[in-house]
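Below is how a single chain appears once it has passed through the pipeline. First comes the sequence as given, then the structure the pipeline wrote out for it. We keep one example in the README because the format questions we get most often are answered faster by looking than by reading.
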Amino acid sequence: MTSKAVPALDRVAITLSGVCAIHCIVTPLVVVLFPVVSACLSSDQSFHAILLTFVVPSSGVALTLGCRRHRDVAVLALGIVGLGVLVVAAVPGHFDSWERPVTLGATALMIVAHTRNYRLCRSDGCEHT
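Resulting structure:
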């Protein structure tokens, strides 16, 4: 995979992180306002597992390729911490009542990492921007 894929993967990862954040914020509101909806929704665990199957590879590739190009360790560190926390938060029983805030924090780290990666790639004079 070439470095031309980095901006697209960063945009995909930012979008997926946004979807996760929206899910974490909206789901409790919908369940409270419309209790019948809770019977129709799949569990948060299955949603997180499905989302992680897309987030981990796209983030890993985008951040690795981007860091290879612009050598910004902060991007890689933010990404590794964010992904690690997302993976741990998705394991049942670890956080229980803290799952949403922890996931939102990790999502924010991922958005910052990918936004920084995207901007660094653009400012680095890459022909793929």
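Residues 3-123 form one domain.

See the next section for the split statistics.
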